[in-house]
Amino acid sequence: MVMDASATTSETLPVETLLERLATVVGEEHVRALPDDARYGGLLVPNLTPEQRPRAVVQPASAEQLQQLVTLVPRLAHEIWTTPNACGNGARAGEQRRPAVLLDLSRLDRIVEVDRRAAVAVLEAGVGFDALLAHLRERDLPLATDLDANGARAVLGGLLDRHWGVGPWGERSAWFCGVEAVLRNGALLRSGIGALPGNANWARTRYAYGPALDGLFTRSALGIVTRFGLWLAPRPRRLLPFMLELTNAVALGAAVEALRPLLLDGTLGGTVAIAGDASDAALLAARGIAAPAATGGWRLYGALAGSTGRVAARWDSVRAALAALPGARLADEATADGDARWTARLRLLRGETLHHDASGRDGDALAFTVVAPPTALDARTLLRILTARLPEVDARVEFRQGPRALRLEVALPSGPRNHGARRAMALNTLAELVKAGYGIAFATPGLDDAVEVRHVDEELRGLHASVRAALDPYAPRRAAPRGDKPAPKPRAKKT
Amino acid sequence: MKPSAGELPAARVDAKALAAALDEFRTALGPQWVLAGQAPGLSVYRDDFAPGTHPERAPAAALQPANLKQVMKALDIARRHGIPLWPLSSGRNLGYGGAAPRQAGVVMLDLHRMNRIVEINEKFAYAVVEPGVSHLDLGRELARRESRLVPAPPSAGWGSVIGNLLERGHAYTPQAEQFDNLCGLQVLLGDGTLVDTGFGAFDKSRVARLSASGHGPQLDGLFAQSNLGIVTRIGLWLRPAPASCRPYRVTLASDDGLHALVETLRPLVQEGMVAPGASIVNLEKDAALLTTRRRYQADEGRLTAATRARLAQDFKLAAWTLYGALYGSSALVANDARELAAALGAVPGARLEFEDEVGDAPAFALRATLARGTADMGAHAALDWVGAGAHLDFDIALAQTGDAARGAVDACRALCDEHGLDYLAELQVGPRDLRHRQSLVFARDNARDRRRARGLYEALLAAAATRGEGVLRTHLDFMDQVAERYAWNDASWLRTCEALKDALDPAGVLAPGKSGLWPGRAGRKRN
């Protein structure tokens, strides 16, 4: 992202006037100048200077208010930035062409519906994981879902970021079903079956009629999701968490190879996490717990869920594959005593969040997620590149392994003094990872635009731009209508 | 409301422009691959199963390109001359319009010659295929390679893998939701841009077929049941063959147990024991695969109790039969067999039988074949139920509850009785819903039968609208009608799709009217 501090010019509306105009929609108590703390600035783009940060934050209470705001804010010559609940995930920053207003959807926090029998929920954008859990507990609903360690974060944020959790329900996009979104032209849209007036099943049927639009709103600013359908799981009759200690990268690679067929054929549903010392330590630090001494090794966390008989039958296969790995030690719940890392992960795998931090402080890190084939060689290659490109940096590194992909999540601490250097370091690392054939699934806003420009080919970027131009009347106009282009020659086959 | 399809005028194509375009098409593709005028091959692009009495929608010509380069040239020519194209993978979607276009006068873009299986990857369990590859082709190639991978075919395997997936067809294995098996597509937009979605857009990506989403928004859904681009290649996730696959059936002697069966299945589906792909099929639908109606009942009208009893006895059928299979290790399958039997004890009259217990039951054999992922054409036999038969398919989504299932069954059956056609139906089990799929089988050489089918279909659509049920796919004739029902909040979904249509196909030449999406240049009128 090109940061242009000069975007705030003398022609910009005085902040008092801006606040007054925004207050006409939501009331003055829900509009304020962006507070001078890390919260809102940090969760969008790390280490913004005061000039670069949004000038105001607005908290609409309804989709109707949001519809009014998306048409008002551009008329006030401001960009729209959004966050589901300002707790660190799902935020989207607009271009830096003009000063910005941040729309914080925290007040859209209703749990609209939980259908116990169907195991589905309809949530508003600002609902956090802890709020959903409390709702289920208070009503004694025997349902479960994948969670973020930080229970303050928005359920929607994880879906929009396409993050993976850990355990039987870890691949979150598989649990997303139907959205309601405000488009930049002010229209309120429901996708899928939700577009059928009077139909109550829009969180039950993923694909309806005609083109499916849900995916448009993930990892994009094409619309602002206000509510969405979420598939839940029945609370498992038996949950069997397990940990595999791996002494070094060689053992890690062997585990990746051993897990691949189990994840691919569904014996082990969902995803597993493979955490390094810094990643585990960060998880504990958030709870105020000191981490055990670093081992230099890795710990693999996963769980099986289902009936007692089904879990036992699948565990036989998993245990047979993992127990014999050299350099690995398999642990279960009974062996958790004394290991704070395993104890914390157990809570998460059982469906409990670990802490409630609404500060959005993780936004101070530059984060990215790399997608690689799930092989031992690729696990080692990823680590080699990180070691070479991020020396002397206390990066938090954690793998997620799913049926066909190994994802590496990297968080690089950065502060005002070293942000530029760290950003350059991260971009160089990403370039080398892409050169090695890997994909970049996620990057914090400070990196994301650069990934798009540097690594996504011209044709797909053109498609992104065309879709945006169709849905957003304030999108930058293209130099020439695409329809006037001559047909390009076929590109070299990539497959 | 737009006119119904039978009244749709032919596409407005300037005769001189068409003649000039045909000359260029012949140069680009070779004259033998451009069918026009009285070319005998042109007659395949029609809907032999069309209900009602409206005239055939004869295309002006058909193009049969052999490769991507020719497709791009064809699109370029069509854009320059303003010729609407109707892309087609193989045209086997017979219950929904087959190989016909929506309007007469368009030019078919038939991709069946693009039939390469580009890649089969055993390690990561995927294939890369072109539009002309059928499920039978893919199954044969996997068998030839002695692959350990299993595909997910629909009931009739002759159709295109890509066509079936993009139309959101249903399979009978755990990968039943075919669209979820898509991993990256290559698509030619209406403006001539060739796009690889997902990580296919990263240079030399090694993960293009391993991660369904790439960087930025997930766009693949735009190209399902749509006319926003021509899909020329896809990545398709397959499934490793399980160590054990044990097909089963659960029979019900009457409608009485249906409610309890659906209620019992729901938690088993949510826990993963009953995999999506299981399907609850009624006696008429099973019987249609195995015999003819006339052999059992001479007169029209609902099958009598005596007829149904004879069919059940002769072919080992039941009023309703759940077909499914257990997959996994031997230990897991053995466990699931015990748990399934225990759970079904709550369903009055239900009888669970595994493959080795069923004996000689041809309907079961067909379903077991599909559950194993083997493409087959056995389902095509249903057309013989009424002699020279045709079928028109009606698909709606239901809540996964006994009430919803019984409500739809009772209502649809009553309408069948009213219109004098048999009720052939199945309830396909989805992850959180049921899909009620009904085949309106009628004699295609009988004008009265065709009118009946049309009348019944219109009545089913109206009844679904009254009950608030969503139609998931439909025949060419009803695409506008169904699209306009998705009208929540001033038709914001349809308006959004139309805006995308104009942006991605600015010349408006790709499949005008597909799924009810018309380009602005076709004179779309929407308040």
Can you walk me through this structure?
The complex is a heterodimer of chains A (495) and B (527). Chain A has 495 residues and is α+β, with helices and mostly antiparallel strands. Chain A has helices at residues 15-26, 38-44, 63-75, 129-138, 155-160, 249-264, 277-285, 308-323, 340-349, 376-389, 419-435, 445-455, 458-471; strands at residues 31-33, 56-58, 79-83, 100-104, 111-115, 120-124, 143-144, 176-183, 188-190, 223-231, 233-234, 238-246, 272-275, 298-306, 328-331, 365-372, 396-401, 406-413, 439-443. Chain A has 13 helices and 19 strands. Mean pLDDT of chain A is 89; it is low at 1-10 and 479-495. An 8-stranded antiparallel β-sheet of chain B has the order 15-12-14-13-17-18-16-19. In chain B, a hairpin with a 4-residue loop joins strand 5 and strand 6 (126-129). The longest helix of chain B has 21 residues, at 447-467. At the A-B interface, strand 9, strand 11, helix 8, strand 19 and helix 12 of A face helix 2, strand 8, strand 9, strand 10 and strand 11 of B.
Label this structure with key terms.
heterodimer; A: 495 residues; eight-stranded antiparallel beta sheet; five-stranded antiparallel beta sheet; 13 helices; 21% strand; globular; disordered N terminus; disordered C terminus; B: alpha+beta; 15 helices; 19 strands
